[in-house]
Amino acid sequence: MDGVRNVRVTRQGQLSLPAPVRRRWKVEHGGELGVIDLGSAVVLIPGGARAARRALGDAFGAGRYLAAVRELNDPELATQ
Fold this sequence. Notes:
Number of helices: 4
Strand order of the largest sheet: 1-2
Order of helices and strands: HEEHHH
């Protein structure tokens, strides 16, 4: 897989992840994805919102996490 795929969003807001992505990231039926809205992009993180917060913390380091969240203007990410 080259890392770039198109997916379509239904009228109900649902989308289908390509099978190679589901297998690689072990996203099973009913599995959760954390969604981070970066303003110019959306990032999906397997494992739900808690995993998304952890991934942001790891990416930015403890000192930069809250600053990054403020820049995203998403108060939900600042909790927990």
